[in-house]
C-alpha cells in the first residue's frame, strides 16, 4: 500500500479524530483576504476535509464546490453543508471542467503530496481556474517528506521552505500576490505546536 492510500485510509478510519483536530484551526483571516482578491463567486475547496472552510465561504456568499480523497470526510461535509457540492476526487487529476473557478482554496492539502507530484497538482489547479483566477495554498514549513505518526495513526507529509514552494507555483503559471509565514499558535491558540505555516496567495497569469 502506498503513502497516499495509507493517508486516505487514515482519514476514513479515524475521521472523528481528524475532524475534531481540524476544527481547532481558524483560517478566517486568510479566507477574508482571499475572498477580497476574487472577481467572481465560484470557489473550489481542494482538499476540503469535512467542509470547515467551505462552510465559511458559503457564509460570505460564494458558490462552493469541495473535493477530497476521503469518502468519510465527504460524507460528513455533505451533511454539515448541504448547499455546497462535494465530490470524491484526486487533486492530481480531477474530472472537473476547465476554466471554471474564480478561486481555488488549497488549505493544508497539497502537503499530503510527494514533492515530485506537486507540479502535476498545480497544473491541474491552473486548468481549473479562469485566467486571472486566484489560488491559495498553505503548507508546513520544514524540509523533506515522510510519514508522520500521531495518536491516531500516520499520514504522509511534505515540508517546504518559502522559496521552494514559491518556485513550483510560479513555474505552474502563477504570479505570487502575497505570502506570509503564520505561526501555528495564531491558527489554533496552541503555542506548543510546530511547525509554522507558509501561506501563499497567487494569480493564474498563463495557461
Terminal CA distance = 34 Å
Structural class: alpha/beta
So, the CATH homologous superfamily?
Answer: Vaccinia Virus protein VP39
Stated plainly, the CATH topology is called: Rossmann fold
Task: Give the C-alpha Rg.
Answer: 16 Å
- Uncertain runs are none
Total number of strands? 9
| Domain module count | 1
Main sheet characteristics: 7 strands, mixed
| Residue-averaged pLDDT | 96
Give the strand order of the largest sheet, numbering strands 1, 2, ... along the chain: 3-2-1-4-5-9-8
H-E order: HHHEHEHEEHEEEHEHE
User: How many helical stretches?
Assistant: 8
Our estimate of the beta-strand percent is 25-35%
CATH class annotation: Alpha Beta
CATH architecture: 3-Layer(aba) Sandwich
Helix residue percentage: 25-40%
Shape: globular
Describe the fold and architecture:
By secondary structure, this protein is α/β, with parallel strands linked by helices. Helix content is 36%, strand content 29%. The strands form 2 sheets. The chain has a 7-stranded mixed sheet, with helices on both faces. The longest helix has 11 residues, at 3-13. It is globular.
Please sum up the structure shown:
The N and C termini lie far apart (34 Å).
